[in-house]
Structures are given as structure tokens and as C-alpha cells.
Amino acid sequence: MFDLNGIYNSMKSFYDLCWLGKSLNPKDVVVLLGGSDAFGTQLCQQLINEDVVVVNIDSLDNSNELLLDINSPKQQYYFIPCDSFEDVNHMKSAINKVAQTKLTPTIFLNNINFEFETILKDSNTECNDLSSDYVKYFQKTIMINLENVMVSTKYFLNNFINPDFYYVINVSIDIKDVYSWEGSRFRTSKMALNQYHDSLVSELNEMYWEKNLDIKNILFYLPYKHLNYSEYVSSCKQLSINAVSHLKNGERGPIQL
Fold first, then answer.
1. Residues 6+ apart with CB under 8 A from 17
2. How far apart are CA 181 and CA 126, in angstroms?
3. What is the rounded CA–CA span in Å between residue 93 and residue 82?
4. Which of 62, 165, 235, 247 has a 20 to 30 A CA-CA distance from 211?
5. Contact assessment for residue 43 and residue 61, using Cβ atoms and an 8 Å cutoff
6. What is the per-residue pLDDT across 193-227, written as a single tens digit (0 to 9) for each?
7. Non-local CB neighbours of 221 within 8 Å, separated by 6+ positions
8. In which residue ranges of the chain is pLDDT below 70?
């Protein structure tokens, strides 16, 4: 008997090596969760510069920070408000509004990084004890960065998948010093997200066989070591340029920005 999984894995390794398949182009529509932070805003801008349509789901509209071509024949930026990433029903409601744009999404990108600033070297925002406040915020961070992202991703795939869809992307950090106390809530949530992303890859591989959909995945790692907040913000433009370059190359897998 043929080992279909073995054949698939061999073909996929070659496929990944050559960066074959779909890649970012002006026909794409990116649904972006959390596109209004420092990195998200720069990413919106770089995608728009490539003539890609961006649907930003966030609590804050960053359109006043973007350079938009008012003479463009198509609307390139849509903002859908989500009052709270802590409430999964708010997130589902916001995702449902994507249908009202009459757009066909091709990329789903999660850039929710609640408490990212707590791992930067000038951070003094996280309490260092196991008080009730710490436990409360720990639960909140896990809920926002992991649990609701998982539910929202599944909900999106179940309701908006289409033959043109080809990318699921998570933005995270590469956890090396697991035992560091600094930013422990954020680190824990992102360790779990990275593991979830691995399981998502397997699920997307199954969709290849069941629905003949070749959906790529990327886990973008943001840099954070030896950076303070202002240095990180200053680097976001180049990080977003790097991210778009990887998408234009049609790459997949874990990628350090």
C-alpha cells in the first residue's frame, strides 16, 4: 500500500523548500485581528502599499495613521470595531461583519499580542507576585492571546473558507528563556499559542486531503530581546516590510522577523 502521509510529507518538504504555490498579490484580502498596535499599523500600511485590501478588526481605528490612495479604484482599508478581545462573542460578531464588505478573504492574520510590552527591557508594568490581581490578569492574558484566538480562527475557517483562501498566520514570539519571570503572563500565553499553531498546521494538512485546499501557515516571531518600547516601535516598519516580503515569496512555517 502507498503511504499517503509519507508521500504528502515528502512533497510538502519539496514544496516548502521551493516556496511554490500562491503568494501575496494585489487580489488578496487580508482579515487582520489586532491591526491597530505599532506593528499592526505598519503591517496595514505595507499591505496597502502592495495594493492588497486590509480588513482590520480591533477596538481602535488606525486609519488616520495610514497613507491611503483616495484615487484608488478600490477601497483598500476597512475597519471593523471589536469592543473587546476578551469577549469571544464580540470577536465572532466582528468577524461576521466581514461578510458585509462583500469581500472574499484570502488571508487570516492574528496579531493579538496583549501585554507584549511586559517582555521589553524597560517594562515595569507586570506585578511580580501571585496576588489576586496577578491571577486575574493572567487569566485575562490567556483568554485574549490564546483561547479567543483559537475559537475565532476556527469560527473563521468554518464560515469564510473559500477556494481562493490560502494563508493562516499567527504573530508571536520565539520563547527561549521559558523560566524568565519578566512578562510571564505574556510568555505563557504565547508558548501555548505556538503549540496551538502546530496543531493548526496538522488540521490544515487534513483540509488539503478532505477539501483539496492547500492552506499555508506562518508563525511570525517578533523580536523583543534587548529592546525597549521605543526601540521596538521604531523597528516595526522594517519588521512589517520583512513580513510582507515573506508573504510575497509564498513562504510558510516559523519565521523570525
1. none
2. 10
3. 8
4. 247
5. no
6. 999 999 998 888 887 777 777 899 999 999 998 88
7. 172, 173, 174, 254, 255, 256, 257
8. 1-20, 122-132, 177-181
Domains in the chain: boundaries: 26-256
Cell of 148: 479567543
**Under CATH, to which class is 26-256 assigned?**
alpha beta
Count H helices, E strands: the chain? Answer: 7, 7
Gyration radius of the chain over CA positions: 18
Residues with Cβ within 8 Å of residue 158, at least 6 apart in sequence: none
**For residue range 169-190, what is the model confidence (pLDDT) as tens digits?**
999 999 875 556 678 899 999 9
Letter string b/e over residues 74-100, b meaning 16 or more CB atoms within 10 A of that residue's CB? eebbbbbebeebeebebbbebbeebee
> What ranges in 87-228 are assigned the alpha helix state H?
88-96, 132-142, 148-160, 184-211
The number of residues making up the chain comes to 257
What is the residue type of 130? L
